[in-house]
Design brief:
The protein is about 65% helix and about 10% strand. By secondary structure, the chain is of the alpha+beta class.
Length: about 350
């Protein structure tokens, strides 16, 4: 009985009652543009300028068995109805007793029976296996899972791009506001002071003073020459007056450059502070624009892509359940239980005798 009954039940179930299960498989790898690549398949992708996103593949693997993926599949394929059909045997179908058809129960059934995502850590290849009770449904679910994975990766790319560019854009906006404020401050200073550039105007004033000083030196020399020739020369008073006028003009012009609060030199510190703010704002804006360009380049270089290695197949024959293997396993297990039971009974009898 310990051997015949379990084996007979296994033959009955797997031979007559068990529903055919169709299995659809596919393979893909997540890649980026910039990361280094291992050997094997990695070197093949690297020859095309592409590298594997070995760290990001885990998020895609988790998505395949996530609530979001199941929710989308339920809306498209009505998994509760197809996998909970009464045409399917009770040991395999969803909610066989009709006690719990909640989404949580469907999620457990989905993760245990319908979809399996296996990641090869050495090559970062993800193998997706989908089980269904019809070949068409297994293929359709597998195809939709890959399409949803590609959409999921695109959303990751968009979110990463926004995060990278958002901070750089904020810096550019701040730099533009600072430069605009600095330009307005400089313009207001020039209008209030009626002065364009005190430094350049000081240089012009000094050049004019230098010319007046040269003229005064020449006039003094001429006066000395006239006095040496004739002390009562009528040109002497004229030249002396000319020297006094030049000295007064030089003093007046020097006072415009330096000496009091109205001089140009007193206005230079404030002007230099304003121009320094403007130059700093312009440099800050230049750096911010470079950072924004670099952020956009980085965002593009970190884009993720799903490279399909094996397309979802539509099975032409059900490969599960494996009737012969399961019956043989049941027979072997029954024989082991029978042998252990026989030994135990024999030991008990021997002990009793």
């Amino acid at each position: 009985c310990l051997v015949v009954v379990p084996t007979a039940l296994a033959v009955l179930y797997f031979g007559l009652l068990a529903h055919d299960v169709y299995v659809s498989g596919s393979q893909f790898v997540v890649r980026t543009v910039q990361r280094a690549m291992p050997t094997g398949l990695g070197s093949l992708l690297q020859s095309t300028g592409l590298t594997q996103g070995s760290e990001d593949v885990y998020s895609v693997e988790a998505f395949l068995t996530s609530r979001d993926a199941l929710q989308s599949l339920e809306e498209r394929h009505h998994l509760k109805r197809s996998f909970g059909s009464h045409k399917v045997d009770q040991l395999t179908r969803f909610d066989p007793l009709g006690w719990d058809d909640s989404f949580e129960a469907l999620l457990r059934y989905y993760q245990k029976f319908i979809v399996n995502a296996d990641l090869d850590s050495s090559s970062s290849i993800v193998t997706v296996t989908v089980r269904a009770f019809s070949a068409q449904e297994a293929h359709a679910i597998n195809e939709d899972l890959l399409a949803m994975s590609e959409d999921f990766v695109n959303r990751l790319n968009e979110r990463a791009r926004r995060d990278l560019v958002r901070f750089a854009t904020a810096d550019v906006d701040s730099a533009e506001q600072q430069e605009r404020a600095a330009v307005l401050a400089l313009s207001k200073y020039r209008n209030d002071k009626s002065l364009y550039d005190p430094i350049k105007q000081s240089d012009l004033q000094i050049q004019e003073v230098g010319a007046l000083q040269a003229e005064r030196v020449a006039t003094r020399k001429q006066l000395a020459d006239v006095r040496a020739m004739a002390r009562d020369n009528p040109q002497i008073p004229v030249l002396e007056n000319r020297v006094r006028v030049l000295s007064g003009t030089i003093a007046s012009e020097m006072a415009k450059v330096a000496g009091d609060r109205a001089s140009l030199s007193s206005k230079v510190p404030q002007y230099e502070g304003i121009t320094l703010d403007r130059d700093f704002a312009a440099k800050y804006l230049e750096v911010a624009l470079d950072s924004l360009q670099q952020a956009r380049a980085n965002a593009m270089s970190q884009q993720l892509y799903i490279e399909r290695i094996a397309q979802p197949n539509q099975p032409d024959v059900a490969i599960e359940p494996k009737a012969l293997r399961n019956v043989a396993a049941t027979l072997l297990l029954s024989l082991i239980v029978w042998a252990l039971t026989s030994l135990l009974v024999a030991a008990v009898r021997e002990h009793a005798d």
